[in-house]
Amino acid sequence: EDTFASKLGKEAPIELKQLRSLSDLVSNLTVLEFKTLFLNTEEFDESEYKHSLHHYYILKFEEELDFSRIKNHLESIMQIELVEPIYIKKANLVPNDDYYPDQWAHDNNGQASSSYGGDVGINDADTDTDLAWDVTTGDSDIIIAILDTGVNEHSELQGRLVPGYDYVYNDDDPNDVQGHGTSCAGIAAAKGNNNAGIAGVCWDCSVMPVKVLGDDGYGDDATIGAAIQQTASEGVQIISMSLGGGGYNS
Lower CB density within 10 Å: C or N end of the chain? Predict the structure, then answer.
């Protein structure tokens, strides 16, 4: 256990049997999974070590347990600093406006209408993307990773989808059955000034589909967290996530 406490992360991840106190504690339970939360920990660099990402592990049981009780037991082990549940996240609502004049978030002139009639928009309460486009509309070398339900081929994204990954079903085909991720990719990067559809924020940027939510629109913190780290380690500097749910997780 002392050896475990001093591990730097470059070694192979520990096995359950190496941590004797934990192994003894769960000996009467069925452990389905014990593994590092983040992927490829042996390849971490200083940015990952700075935040101790190599210290995060997933422990999954077959039985339904009293979380508060198991948390107290686990945190009584000297080598374990913190125990958190893995919460479920879901896709947030995405507006389905088809035309740029209705996209008040780009340029708000009060055009939003109340269901009771009349305009309710506040003039200039927007992101000023119409002003930014006079400076730049982006570049294909700039990659926006959409962490969502996947992204499908679409005319508004033509020629700007780069290879991504499906962390839910663990394959190289992050297709979007649910549709939410493709809509979010459009909000971020749909081609502008092409007489069709909507205008994305950065319409010349590339899009990387990263599937972290299943076909039902739900995903868990562990999958999302591992995908964030892996995507960032590949050099992607912009990650967009339109998801949320209850529960704070460090």
Answer: C
